[in-house]
Every structure is written in structure tokens, then in C-alpha cells.
Write the C-alpha cells for this entry.
Amino acid sequence: MTPSQPSSSPSLSSQPSASAPDLAAVWSNALQLHPIYTELAREFVIETAVCADLESGVNTPGRESVEQAQQWLNQMDDRIQVHQLRQFLQTSSLVDPQGLIALLQHLLAKTSRTESDRDKIDFLLVQYFSQSAPTDLDDNSADLAYVARSLEPVLGSVELKAPVWLNALDRVLESARRCRSLDELLHGGVLEQGRKAKAQAGDLFYLPVALVAFTRFGYLMRRVFFHLMLADLNDILDGLTELEEKGVETIDCRRAQFSAQEPIIRLRMICQSWKVMFQAEYSSGQPLRMLVDLRASVACALGRGSADEGGKAAEQVSAKTPSAKPEPVKVPARSRGAAAGVGGSKTAAVPQPLPGPFAEPESKFAVSDADAPEFEVSSAAPEWNPDTDSQPQPGKKKK
């Protein structure tokens, strides 16, 4: 049985003799993506040429115009970085449900995809599922069958006979769930195994069943991340309260890029605003390291840690080895292909709050999927200055 493929906007490069309806579908998708890519370019100061027919919104373009539009979109794909797309979708209201589907259609329809295309598809599928999943969905219910049904508008009906190598994703998830802090998750080697899973999959990543499995993996990893991030924030606030009760007014937070005598009242205000900052700096690794280091600074001030603990990972992303390191993902070396189909029309416009772990323990912050930072530490993202506005800084053109 072969997965059925829903209708989608075809790629001209794969259909040299495309008919008029095919040209119309490609053009319609390009018109939908044009304002999204244009706004992305404006927000992140990305140099871009002008596609005249797309700018004017021609109703019945010729084949040459459609080809030029596709070339323009592909050029924009090369210039837009993954973390910029993540940040943009988390902070912009421009991308409606149809726009999200159009982005997936465009990227999945490519015949030649880059590593950046793969990461964008991975993020968009997780985002799509996160937005459509009910708030009371628990981890056990989010199995392959459930995720596959939710992704049918994008991937069509998927045969759920998962290859053995995808089992490694569950081992990575179990290792992540054993992490006791954000520091351990970010720098204990667990995330590296997730990245290896995607990289080693090669073209097999685009098998429909693999796309479903990686979507489930990304969604559940995101929930683990939020749970640990919330616990760290609460731990910091509790520690600051305890220090205040002891009459302490300032602590040494140099490891977290603050001052040697940082006022506790200021740290409390920063923690209270960190939720907004995480939304703005969606993929930034720097603020996440600052959170880890701030927790270590508070612990040290309370006499529960040494000056050498906690903050080392700011320079060494994978310095430690987890107690139960997951096995590397082994992907068969034979056939690599079978791109996924695309299509569909349904997704939620507003991200839904994440359920499950984020309802407990009692939180001081209402963490929702709209606040979702990418849990991978990214060196490409801009630095964060706690003394400046938390709004994202314009990016630069991708090298």
C-alpha cells in the first residue's frame, strides 16, 4: 500500500510539460507566499530582488512569469535562515492557516532540498501539529496514528509501518524525560542525538511515515523543554525570595553576563519578563544559556553550588555525557527517496497552550506554545542584552 498523495502546488522543474491548471496552482501558491517572504525580508533586512509580476499580482501570467516566480521563491529560501522563520511565525500575525500550508507545500514540492529546507519543514510540521492538537492531549495519546491523522491535510493518508531506525527517536525522548534541568537537556548530549537523527536520515527523512515520526518527536521534545524551562524559572524565583528573606540585596551574576553585584529586585523583574523575551528570541541559544547560568548563580548565592557549576555549557554545548546516552540512529544505506506529498487547508491561526506537563507543578508563568523557543542552542541567533528592549533585532543576509 502506498501513501495517497493529496493535491498540491506542483514544481515546474519536476513537470516540464505542466498544463495551464498546474501553472495556475503554482502561481496561486507563489502569490500567497510573496507577502510572507517580502515581510520576512523587511523584518530581517534581507536583500532581495524584485519579481515584477508577483509585485503586481498578475492574474494570468505566462509560463516564463511563473518560472521567474519560482526562482524568486527559491532565492528567498536560500537567504532566509531557519531561526528567522521560527521567530517570524511566532511573532507575526501575517501567516494565516492557508499561509502555513502554502509554506509546507512549497518546501515539500521541491525536488532538491537543502539542510535548511529540511529544518524548516521539520519546524513547520511540528508547529502545524502543535496548533491543531487539543489542549488536553497527553503524551501517551500522541502516538504515530494520532499525529498521522492530524497531518493528513498536509501529507495525506500515511502507511504507519515505521522502519526500525525510527525507534531511536523514542530512546532520545526517554533520555530527555530523565533530564532534571534545562542545563542537562541543553548540554547533556540529548539534543545532539536528536540532531543526528535528522542528519543521518538523509532523504529518508521525507518518507511520509518518517515525517510523522519526526513531528511527534519534535512536539514531545518541545513539551519536555517547556517543562524544564518553567521549572528553572520557578527555581530562580524561589531562590531570589529565599535570598531576600535572608536580607541579601545583590548577588554575583557575572557568569550569566550580569554584574558582580546584581540587585535581586532587578533579577526578579528580568525573570518575570523572560517569557516575553523567549517569544521574541525564538531560536536564540544565548538567552537560554543565560537562564541556565542565572539559576546556577542563585544556587551559588544560596550556598548550594560552586562557582564552577552550571555555566560551563555556555562555551561547551555538548561538554557532558548523559547517564543514559541514547544510541546513535542507524539509517539504512540503501534507497533514499520517496518525497512526501503535500496539500490540505486546515490549521489553527493562533497557537494553542501546551497541555500536560505545563499544568503542573503550579506555575508562576503561563507558558503557551506561542512562547515556544527552539530548544536547540543556535549560534546563528543574535545576542540578547537584558538592558535593551526584548524585541528581536533585524537579522543579516545569510552567507
About this structure: Strands lie at 250-251, 262-263. The CA atoms of residues 104 and 124 lie 7 Å apart.
